[in-house]
Amino acid sequence: MFDFRYHVASLAAVFVALVIGILAGIGLSGRGFVNDAERSVLHGQINDLRSQRDAAVAALADSNRRGAAFDDFAETTYPALARGRLRDKHVAVLFVGSIDQGISTAISRAVRDAGGSITRVRALGVPLDQAAIAAALPAPARRDFVTRGRWEALGRALGAEYVHGGQTPLWDALAEAIVDEQDGSSKPPVDAVVIARPARPSAGMTKDVLAGLYQGLSGAGQPAVGVETAAAQRSAIPVFRRGGLSTVDSVESASGRLATILLLAGGRPGSYGVDDTAVDGVLPPVTR
Predict the structure, then answer these.
(1) 205 vs 46, which has greater pLDDT?
(2) What is 86-272's CATH number?
(3) Which listed residue, of 2, 100, 207, 262, carries a Cα 20 to 30 Å from 51's Cα?
(4) pTM of the complete model
């Protein structure tokens, strides 16, 4: 639906540009540059463009009606489809950057509606401070990760600890250096994890740590889902996918919340939602 709207806008711009050019050409006819036959052809081209524009606008209106109908259907069926899918499941949430309240509310609602609970939430302060990380790590870990520049390995270890819980020496050591906001204990293991990136894309060492973090989350043996809203200005979906995460690009909508629930419950991994990045459709297969 969004791509089609963009197509209509592009077509309208082309229509305006061509009409201006054609009208300018017709205007030259008064000076003898365009004969009657050529002017007739130019008028025909304008009529063809108008027809194409009108057809595109009508198709967009139909697409909007279908989209509204789907949204209504999703809102109506969401409670029944979500109920109980995460019963007794414990979910961890991780933000890269400050907590986005819209995303946080959507995640909390989805987990609650499905009968699950959120065990812990962390928000990473980015860009990361290399000197602060080096100072905070105990000597063996500092030699292993910082001295050798193994930033992705550090990220992978952090991702695994975040899901597995128990002894979390890296999170314990680095909490003051990398965590801006936190809630809940790091000790209990979780059954699934959701990650969002409200922050701008990172570079350098921070980018490497985050790349490893996504890999660590996706490789920890539990469902791991990267989410964002449909209105995200800087999509993190491609980065999440490279890290092996499943993704949902419209978590604030009923269909987005349901997709998130299905993935957290162990549904078919993939990229879901309403944008170009949703290569696997709007929802994972819904089964009972």
Answers:
(1) 205
(2) 3.40.50.2300
(3) 2
(4) 0.79
**192 token code pair:** 């699934």
The residue extents of the domains of the chain are 2-80, 86-272
- For the chain, the straight-line distance linking the first and the last C-alpha, in angstroms and rounded, comes to 29
Q: CA–CA distance from 257 to each of 190, 209, 227, 249, 260 (Å)? A: 19, 28, 10, 10, 5
To the nearest 5 percent, what fractions of the chain are helix, strand and coil? 55, 10, 30
Residue 141, C-beta contacts closer than 8 angstroms, at least 6 positions apart? 169, 170, 173
What dihedral do alpha carbons 160, 164, 168, 174 form, nearest 10°? 50
CA quadruple 102, 188, 212, 151: dihedral sign: positive
Residues shown for the chain: 288
Look up residue 5 and give its two tokens: 């709207």
In the three-class reduction of DSSP (H, G, I as helix; E, B as strand; rest coil), residue 83 is classed as coil
Tens-digit pLDDT profile for residues 256-276 = 999 999 999 999 999 999 888
